[in-house]
Structure formats: C-alpha cells, structure tokens
Amino acid sequence: MSESLPLLTPNASRGARTIARCHDRLATRRRRIEARTRPSNPRTIVAERLFISGLCVVYLISMAANVLSAISPP
Amino acid sequence: MTFMDRESELELVARIRAGDAGAFDAIHAEFNGRLFNFLARLSRRREVAEDLLDETWLRFVDRAHKLTPDTRLGPFLFTVARNLYVSYCRARMLEDAQSADAIGLWPLGSPAPSPFESTVASETGRRLDEAIAALPAAHREALLLVAVEGMKPAEAAAVCAITPEAMRQRLSRARAAVARHLDESDNTILVHLKAVTT
C-alpha cells in the first residue's frame, strides 16, 4: 500500500541541522564517557602507590610500637 | 523503502549505544523519511510533522545509551514519534479548550487543507490519502503502522500501547472506512489492505 501513497519528503536543510545537533549531543556524551573511563597518568599512579605504601608502613610501625610497649615490663 | 536485516540492526544498536555518529547517520537515513511520512499523515500538517520529527531524533539520541542490545529500532522510533504526537495533541487540546468536537485524547484534526493535495501524483494515491486522512486518529495510526510501515499487528499494538485484540479491531474498522472511500478500480489496494490487516 505504501507504493500507492505519494512519498512526502522532509525539509532537507532542517534535517541537516537536526543531524548536526544530534552529532553534537553524541559527541558530548562520548567525551563524558571517555573522561569517566580514561586511565590515569603513570606518574599519578606511582605517586598514589607510594603514598598508600607510606601510610601502611607508618601504620605497621605504630602497631609494632604499641605491641612492644604493651608487652614490655614497666 | 528498504528494511535493514536484523544482523545489521543489532550492529547499529551496539554502535549507537557507544555514541557512534556513523551509526546515527545510517539509522537516520533508514528511518527519517518513513517517520516523516508517518507523522505527516498522522498529524495531517507538514509543519507539525517537521517539528515532531526533529524532536523524535533528539529524544532518540538522548536515550541511545540506554537502549538494550536487542532493541528493534523501527518500533522504538515509531513509539517515540507516536508518543510525541500524543503529547502534541494533549497540549493542543489544552490550548484549544473550546473545541467541542474533540473526543477523548484525539482531536478531530486541523480544519486547514491537507498538505498532501499539492504533492499527490496519482488519482488512486489521492483517494487513498484522503481516505486515510479522514480516519479517526487512533485508526489512522493503526493503519499507517501496519499497512504502510509493514509492522506486525502485535508490534503496532506495542507502539500504540494497546492490546493486540484492540489493534485488530482498529485495523478492521480502518480498513472498512478506507474501502468506503475507494471505488472498484482500487481493488488491488483493497486486496492488499485486507491481506496485511487480517
């Protein structure tokens, strides 16, 4: 039946503007996803690991000091 | 009118979920004309159809990342377009509260002349267009989705948010109304119409 009906054509210039707007929105969304999933800088990763390791060492030393002070005679 | 195969459709869905502009272009090329013809015949006004078409694509892009991997693009897009038209009708009914002949959700349409008159090429096409334009909106959308867009009645029922049985009733009434408008020389169309709507 669709062949019997006259085919109507949408406004091409308006369609092109809509496509451009849709591309913009898609690009914005892609950028947001990329920013969320982007891997960090290697230097930042090393610094993070050093910082966390330092905190662990300080914690362990303080724990050991506490245990030693608790078991040593007054 | 071309219809993409399911494999290509699934690939496009995967790409558009990732925000691929090329996938959007392919989907736009496939459905833009079909959506426009659907909206223009549903609303019977070219400028309204243009507005609703733009909004359909913008909504589609905004929701693209939320599509499920097995989304069927046709029913999805026609549902968005149809819902936008329903919202437009509701807004218009609020603005045009004095319209006494509006029944339920569906206003009877614009008193303005049909935009198709200037584009109709054949006598049969003109009569068919007139017959479709004269249908109540609920019957018109049913006929457009099934007989023109080639959807299965169950798919069209999902698009219109009604039961398949209600869709069959609407199709049957739409077919009868169109048959009254057409004469015996349009027998081919009537046979085709009967085949796709029963």
Describe the secondary-structure layout.
The complex is a heterodimer of chains A (74) and B (198).
Chain A: H1 12-37, H2 42-71
Chain B: H1 6-17, H2 21-43, H3 46-63, H4 73-95, H5 123-133, H6 137-148, H7 153-160, H8 164-181, H9 187-197
Helix pairs in contact in B: 1-2, 2-3, 2-4, 2-6, 3-4, 4-7, 5-8, 6-7, 6-8, 7-8, 8-9
Structural class of chain B: mainly alpha
Determine Rg of chain B (CA atoms, Å).
17 Å
The fraction of residues in strands of chain A falls at under 5%
Low confidence ranges of chain A: none
**Total number of helical segments of chain A?**
2
Oligomer: heterodimer
Largest sheet of chain A: none
Count of helices of chain B?
Answer: 9
Instruction: Report the mean per-residue pLDDT of chain A as an integer.
Output: 89
What is the general shape of chain A? rod-shaped
Number of strands of chain A: 0
How widely separated are the two ends of chain A?
A: 101 Å
Label the structural class of chain A: mainly alpha
- Classify the helix fraction of chain B into a percent range: 55-70%
Largest interface, Cβ cutoff 8 Å: A-B, 23 and 46 residues
**Roughly what fraction of the amino acids of chain B lie in strands?**
under 5%
Give the averaged pLDDT of chain B, no decimals. Answer: 83
Question: Quick one: how many beta strands of chain B?
Answer: 0
Which features would summarize this protein structure in a list?
heterodimer, A: 74 residues, mainly alpha, 2 helices, rod-shaped, B: 198 residues, 69% helix
Short description:
Chain A is an all-alpha fold and 74 residues long.
Describe this structure as you would to a colleague:
The complex is a heterodimer of chains A (74) and B (198). Chain A is an all-alpha fold and 74 residues long. Helices cover 76% and strands 0% of the residues of chain A. Chain A has helices at residues 12-37, 42-71. The longest helix of chain A is centred in the last third of the chain and has 30 residues, at 42-71. Chain A is rod-shaped, with a radius of gyration of 32 Å. In chain A, 7% of the residues are buried. The model of chain A has no long low-confidence stretch (mean pLDDT 89). Chain B has helices at residues 6-17, 21-43, 46-63, 73-95, 123-133, 137-148, 153-160, 164-181, 187-197. Chain B has 9 helices and no strands. Chain B is mostly helical. The A-B interface holds A 1-2, 4-11, 14-15, 18-19, 21-23, 25-27, 29-30, 33 and B 1, 18-21, 24-25, 28, 32-33, 36-37, 40-41, 46, 49-50, 53-54, 57-58, 60-62, 64-65, 115-116, 119-122, 124-126, 128-129, 132, 147-150, 189, 192-193, 196.
